Amino acid sequence: MSAFDISASGLTAQRVRMDVIANNIANAQTLVTKEGGPYRRRSVVFEAMGRHFNESLTQAHRRLSRIIGGGVKVNKIVEDQTPNAFTKIYDPSHPFADSTGVVLRPNVNVVQEMVDMIDASRAYEANVTALNSSKQMMTKALEIGK
Amino acid sequence: MGLISRLFEVPSTVMLKKGIEGTDARHRALSNNIANVDTPNYERATVSFEKELQRARFGTSFIGKTTDDRHFRIGGVGVVGEVTPRVVIDNNTRFRADRNNINIDEEMANLAENTQKNVALTDLLSRRYKEIRTILQQASQT
Questions:
Q1: Which of A38, B51, B54, B82 has a Cα-to-Cα distance from A73 of 20 to 30 A?
Q2: What residues of chain B lie within 8 A of the CB of A46, using their CB?
Q3: Does B136 touch chain A (CB under 8 A)?
Q4: Which ranges in A1-146 belong to alpha helices (H)?
């Protein structure tokens, strides 16, 4: 696993996270879903990859890359199952109001999603910086003996 | 040792190569730490090689006595070419709710420092080879 692959896996993971956040914001007003009830906010769970062998490397390098690890991946996307988290709005004239006149709205907090998006964006940039450093080092290595 | 290998395998050149090898391993560890900044339960990896290199090159005042060839060497001057970067997983510190111990500011600062170090070492090695080339060219002219 090269440094390029490791940083690329970080970029991919953060991009998936941004997609999920965008989906949450897009569905912040969605009252009906296939599963029934309003939309539930989703979040990603990351998992560290690697710490496994790379057959083409030497013994010492194999040992190193197994311990260092090989990047990150999205393990799963989970729905927020916090009980009673749906916002209750009293609106008896609404078509989705229940017998007591209450409408359930998604448990998406748009402000929290925006903050998460900034976090994902900054983490993405951190991986870009690492990737640029790899490029710089690789370029210098290619200039040896020139 | 032949004349040519005496040109190439001087201790300082081997030190430069080992330095590049070490900074390369550290770069991978830092990249992996940065990629896993949001991974729950991730433990950061650190790479050390400078102290080991220094010890192998210049030795330590503390020298373990050996009475058999199979004994481990403790202290003294080691073989620079045998030093390999050592990866340590930091599982002592925990300060985040998701049990991940990465401090992104520290990782980014280390990344910048390590990249500069690697570039500087690569540059020095490149100059070393240029010197050797000049020596060989001058030798063939005389």
A1: A38
A2: 36, 38-40
A3: no
A4: 3-26, 59-68, 110-142
The answer to whether residue B106 is domain-embedded is yes
Residue B35 near chain A (CB below 8 Å): yes
Question: In Å, how far are A10, A11, A76, B28, B130 from B99, measured between CA atoms?
Answer: 19, 22, 18, 22, 49
Give me the pLDDT at residue B17, please: 92
What's the gap in Å between the CA of B12 and the closest CA on chain A?
Answer: 16
Q: Is residue B141 part of a domain?
A: no
Hey, where are the domains in chain A?
A: 3-28+42-79+108-144
Whether residue B140 is contained in a domain is answered as no
pTM: 0.84
Least confident of A19-33, A124-138, B36-50, B53-67: B53-67
DSSP letter assigned to residue B99: S
SS3 readout for A82-102: CCCCCEEEECCCCCCCCCCCE
For chain A, say whether B87 makes contact (Cβ under 8 Å): yes
- Whether B78 is in a domain gets the answer yes
Share of residues in chain A with pLDDT > 70 (%): 89
Domain membership of residue B13 as a residue range = 3-131
Q: Considering only the beta carbons, identify the residue of B31, B104, B123 that sits closest to A3.
A: B31
In this complex, the residue of B23, B31, B85 whose CB is nearest that of residue A64 is B85
CB B62 within 8 A of CB A98: no
Per-residue pLDDT tens over the stretch A99-121: 999 999 999 999 999 999 999 99
Q: Which tens digit of pLDDT belongs to each residue from B66-110? A: 788 787 766 666 677 888 888 888 888 888 888 899 999 999 999
Across the A:B interface, residue pairs with CB atoms under 8 Å apart total 114
What's the structural domain count of chain B?
A: 1
Q: What is the ipTM of this complex?
A: 0.84
Q: Collect all residues with Cβ–Cβ distance below 8 Å to B15 and sequence separation of at least 6.
A: B53, B57, B80
B34 touches chain A (CB under 8 A): yes
Specify the pLDDT at position B56. Answer: 82
